[in-house]
Amino acid sequence: MCLVSLTQSNYTQAPPASPNVTVIFGAGGDLTRRKLIPALFHLCDAGLLSDNFAVLGLGRRDVDDDSFRDLMAEHIRDYVGTALRETESNWRRAVVEKPFGQDLESVAAFN
Question: How many domains does the chain have?
């Protein structure tokens, strides 16, 4: 289950994937931190990962399960913090929930 949500609006209404295990070779590396973990985060955020999804990370360093989980959680916190800061600094939109005007002409006058 994904605990933090940035946005789910960028994804189609696809069903979650079947239960599976994703194996990451070089799990302690830069590619995992910069690309793979954010990608998995977005899949989770979109509800596209099964509740029975797992990651098996393999690397050269001798790291126990809890330390690996802590490292991945740190990567996610770093990524989410950066993504939220970028989202907040680039926030330039207005959401209009209800239509204004009674016809195209009156809506154009509103703008």
Answer: 1
How far, in Å, CA of 71 to CA of 67, rounded? 6
Domain around 84: 1-93
d(CA 7, CA 63): 32
110 token code pair? 């509103």
User: What is the predicted pLDDT for the residue at 23?
Assistant: 92
Question: Is residue 86 in a domain?
Answer: yes
Question: What sign does the dihedral 42-11-92-99 (CA atoms) show?
Answer: negative
**83 within a domain of the structure (yes/no):** yes
If you ran DSSP here, which 8-state letter would residue 34 be given?
A: I
Q: How far apart are CA 58 and CA 102, in angstroms?
A: 61
Is the pTM above the cut of 0.70? Answer: no
CATH (domain of 42): 3.40.50.720
Of the candidates 49, 45, 35, the one whose C-alpha atom is nearest the C-alpha of residue 7 is 45
pLDDT higher than threshold 60 for residue 91: no
Report if residue 40 sits inside a domain. Answer: yes
Tokens 């994703």 -> residue: 22
